[in-house]
Design brief:
Blueprint (H helix, E strand, L loop, with lengths): L7 H4 L4 H9 L2 H20 L5 H9 L1 H29 L5 H21 L9 H23 L5 H25 L8 H7 L3 H14 L6 H57 L8 E2 L2 E2 H13 L1 H19 L21
Antiparallel strand pairs: 1-2
Helix pairs in contact: 3-12, 3-13, 5-11, 5-12, 7-8, 7-11, 8-9, 8-10, 10-11, 11-12, 11-13
Length: 341
């Protein structure tokens, strides 16, 4: 049977710097870097030649044409914020019966997990809950290895040893990442995505099917319990992923609201006060009107850049986790990696 690397980085054909940029880098830092690139690029490209931009301002009222469009764009961005807020709120609003059903479903799932892992009360924090589930899955894998030690099928014992060693290594890594992680930060999701439960479900089912005649009744029962624990991890992670998406959309809405009003003030000030004769002279060899125009343009695109930085992470996560359960969509885990003979 082929093998698949555990961990989100190892399971997709993306470079680590690119994945770090898309997922792990702080969204405000990413937005700041993009805005810095925009500002520097505008200064460098606009300052070429003997003051061409000031002539454009004087002859064609370039500042008005550039910045007047920002007013409508920023106001449209505020409208977008309201729309995003309505989408998020629509998930939370409902009649008392709907709210009670959501509560019952959440409690039923928690009780199913507690029953499966033999625990009276599970932790309320998402990171601790996922950590407990991963740890108990690892413990069940160890039990499976102990049970098959008495089996006569040597190939079965070797495959179980390899499987359990791989699962425990991955589980320990994920558990360490979840230790003390706080929901609302990306660390909870990042660590949970590194547990390749879908591949482990496939491997367990494949081993059990290939050696069905060699398995004792106790070993089959242990296999079933391990599969149940692996299957519980999927909906638990997807639930917290959904909550995180809502959390991020709310943060995005607040961020856009925070920057929209200052952006409108800066754009309005430039439109009202900067003319052909404004800011005479140069700084660092660059016409002062270029500095002002580049700064104003950068401030004007700030809401869009913040929207871009948050959306990049959300869309990347959504793409990488489209399938829940024993289905593999990523190119790095196609059928060619699996020996079906």
């Amino acid at each position: 049977m082929g093998t698949v690397t555990d961990g989100l980085v190892g399971r997709i054909r993306d470079s680590q710097p690119r994945l770090w940029l898309l997922l792990r880098l702080n969204r405000w830092v990413l937005a700041g870097c993009v805005l810095a690139v925009v500002f520097v690029s505008l200064v460098l490209t606009t300052s070429v030649g003997d003051g061409p931009f000031r002539r454009l301002v004087a002859d064609h009222d370039a500042l008005w044409w550039i910045f007047s469009a920002f007013i409508g764009a920023i106001i449209t961005g505020v409208t977008l914020v309201v729309s995003i807020g309505q989408i998020v709120l629509s998930q939370e609003l409902g009649a008392v019966g709907d709210q009670r059903e959501r509560m019952d479903q959440a409690m039923d799932f928690r009780q199913d997990v507690e029953s499966e892992i033999d625990l009276d009360v599970s932790p309320p924090e998402p990171a601790a809950f996922l950590k407990l589930l991963v740890d108990r899955t690892g413990a069940q894998a160890k039990r499976l290895r102990d049970v098959v030690d008495d089996e006569r099928d040597e190939e079965l014992r070797e495959r179980i040893d390899d499987y359990v060693e791989d699962l425990l290594e991955n589980a320990d890594e994920v558990s360490e990442g979840l230790e003390g992680a706080q929901f609302g930060t990306f660390e909870v999701l990042w660590s949970s995505f590194r547990f390749n439960y879908s591949w482990k479900i496939f491997q367990a089912r494949r081993i059990r099917d290939d050696h069905a005649e060699s398995l004792s009744e106790e070993a089959e029962g242990t296999f079933d319990e391990l599969l149940e624990r692996l299957k519980l991890f999927g909906p638990a992670r997807e639930h917290f992923k959904t909550l995180y998406f809502q959390w991020e959309l709310i943060n995005l809405s607040r961020a856009l609201l925070y920057v929209s009003v200052p952006a409108l003030i800066v754009i309005g000030s430039i439109l009202m006060n900067v003319g052909p004769g404004a800011f005479p002279g140069s700084t660092l060899g660059v016409d002062n009107v270029v500095w002002v125009a580049a700064f104003g343009f950068t401030v004007g695109v700030t809401p869009f850049v913040i929207l871009l930085s948050y959306t990049l992470r959300i869309m990347t996560l959504a793409k990488r986790t489209l399938a829940m359960g024993p289905f593999i969509l990523r190119e790095a885990e196609r059928e060619e990696d699996i020996d079906w003979s």
